[in-house]
Amino acid sequence: MATFGSFALLIALALAAYNLLAGALALRVLATGQSFPISPERLADTARRAGIAGFVAITAAAFALIWSVFTNDFSIAYILEHSNRALPGPYKFSALWSGQEGSLLLWAWLLATYGFVLRLTHKTDVKLYAYAGTILASIQVFFLLILNFAAPPFALFRGAIPEDGNGLNPLLQYPEMVIHPPMLYLGYVGFAVPFCFGLGALMMRYPGEKWIKTTRVWTMVTWLFLTCGIFLGMHWAYAVLGWGGYWGWDPVENASFMPWLTGTAFLHSVMMQEKKGMMKGWNVWLVFSTFLLTMLGTLLTRAGLVSSVHAFAQSSIGTWFVVFMGLVLAVCIFTYVLQRDHLRAEHNIESLVSRESSFLFNNLVLLVACFVILWGTLFPVISEYVVGNKVTMGAPWYNRVAVPIGLFLVLLTGVGPLLPWRSTSMRSIRRNFVAPVIALWVTVIACLAAGVNPMKDNQFDNGNFYALVAFAVCAAVLTAIVSEFIRGGLVISRQTGKNLFAAMYLLTRRNTRRYGGYLIHIGVVIVVIGLAGSAFNSSKESEMTLHDRLTIGPYTLEQVGATQDDNANYGSEWAILDVYKDGQKKFQMLPEKRVYHSTNQPQTMVAIHSLPWWDLYVIYEGTNPSTGQPIIKAIINPLVGWIWFGVAFIVFGTAIALVPSITPSTASLRVTAVRTVPTEPVLHGGD
Amino acid sequence: MGTVIQFPQRTKKNDGHPEPAIGAPQVSNLRPGKNRLTFLLKTGQALALAVAVCFSLGATDAGKRYLDLNHRLMCTCGCAEILGECNHVGCPNSTEELNLLSAGITSNDTDDKIFDTFAAKYGATVLAAPPASGFNLVAWIAPFAVFAAALLGTILLVRHWSVGNSGMATQAADPEMDALRDRIRRETGEEGGY
After folding, report:
1. Within this chain, do residues B181 and B160 fall inside the same structural domain, yes or no?
2. CB within 8 A of A503, min separation 6: which ones?
């Protein structure tokens, strides 16, 4: 199987190289009109077919690796290092991305899959897709060169082949870890497609903004994958790492967050180009930056440039990535300089207080947030290089620097949709902002009354202060979005005679993109409320003998036993805790500690009891070596469930935004109707 | 018996202006604009003072201080966890570090002195955030400087556009492009969002 896999990768490289060279030649001949022995259209089509065949070859290689994992082929060094016989079936799949070579193969396979879809749908716009397919082939060539020559996944183990493998990293042996990395990779790799379209459209001086529409759909799908990947990772960290949190500003987390921020900025600013013909150059650079950040993220986590708790695979392929990123950047700059006159804006922003400006500021804050995270991730390297001292950029730094910027961004989420296009008047501002401002101050007062005091115990409390601001801003934003729904719903209701909810449903269907976007914003607000809840975490830790009790919040935990188990993969021990509330036994919790036989590494399996208002989070930290008694840590994590609920909202909103709006004929009816109803000045300038 | 110190009575400063009669409306001798400026300045000063006091106040009890400080230090065992959140039973470093922290708090050392002790013993990476001094100051200033510069730049750019906008907008607007964009929207059933 190793020979088959290696051969498949070599064929894939040859096909990708042909796709790149033949595609580039065909496009060159088409662009210059030179004579050539073969028709350029036919040549481009052979290039496209080579791309499709390349997908088959890489799929065969990926299949070979998975087959080798399932058949415990320890003659392959990668399988030996990342699997063992007792590894359960689903986690055998995880072996594909648990190491350097496998994760690069996954990258290449997903890229080929995206390329396959792109090449199959080429009839949408043959020339643009030919450009995009050729650029995509160049990225494929890069990854296949690494897979064939720098990090081959089918390299054979030298020496006597051991009976069993080293096993999978215990941190990866969790159900979400079967989904989270592929989801994250789908997001990472997917941003290559908008990049290819953006660069291709610029190279060919594509007329109009149709390419933007094509790219937007790809970007939204990719963005959705990345969003799900990031939040699945958060949930995994929450349930497995056992420190009670979900985001530690680790370089790997940051690496996934940065392209998410620029991708989000692109999804917003692209509307300005479609609607007003503005920000063309900006959008092109957002697409370029997002792709480069995905490459940088891979470099950061795979090349060992920065240390991370969950960089599972590191090696010395950094030079390859640096060279490739340098080349990509050079091509982007060269193309931009050559074609910049094509990107001249058709309109300029007319007023500082307008929806156009809000988009601009939203982009600005997203990019500053991205810079802050990049700065925090790279500063230890910079510091070591400049002054010879490595420093830690941990949560305290990010909390002080990134949180205020994040809150400002959330505020803009609410302000933007309330501003009309082009310019606005004080009267309009007063009318649109009254309800959100009232909501903001009512929330501040309610929070203060409920005990959220930024001056707790006569001392300034950063966490409480930010939580207070977050709750108030979220209330204002939520009010703003809901009032937008209601205002639009009332107009439709008056036109059609439907009730308000039916009218709001119709409103959403008539402009899925806008109202899907609002649903995403609501999801973000819910997530922020959940994040703000962390300011009120409380925890207790205790060594508990039989029938010892530990009280935290409204709960009392009683240790009623501890037990052990052993299977082929791991040995485990867990505490049995009865949980009492108001003097009555309510439920039982079983926090667990595992030790994996193959690696002898421990793993925490946290017990979580989730309620809308808080999670009771219990960790079995193991036994005290001197007394042999279990040590239990209990944490009350307020509002954590809101984070996961908010994500569901974001997914729902994105799905709505991806669905086409109802027919143009119906849409034109809406335009006519809005003109006849002069009660909607906020929508002035077009909605 | 202690001496009673008589503080001098605060006297109203008389600058020659007659005092208004009781019940008569108070008339300021300052111009309204200057009055407002003074009020704003004083309010600003009071706010700045309040913020400074808030930030300069230290933790009031040892338990809270311990919790605060152990979240500003890292566990050095290689787990990359905040010291107060390291949950490894038998961790070779965290217990020792926590004991060192407790000793520092018990002997009433300042935060800076405790951090210096930790940095001297474990290296600068033990601090969860770099101290705002020397080259590390760049780490704290750069994000806000970039934010401020970007914000200012954007505001100036938009103002520049809006000043010469009326002429530019009509010149730059391309009716063909507008028509094309409208056609795309019609064909794709999109309203352009937002």
Report:
1. yes
2. A489, A490, A491, A492, A493, A496
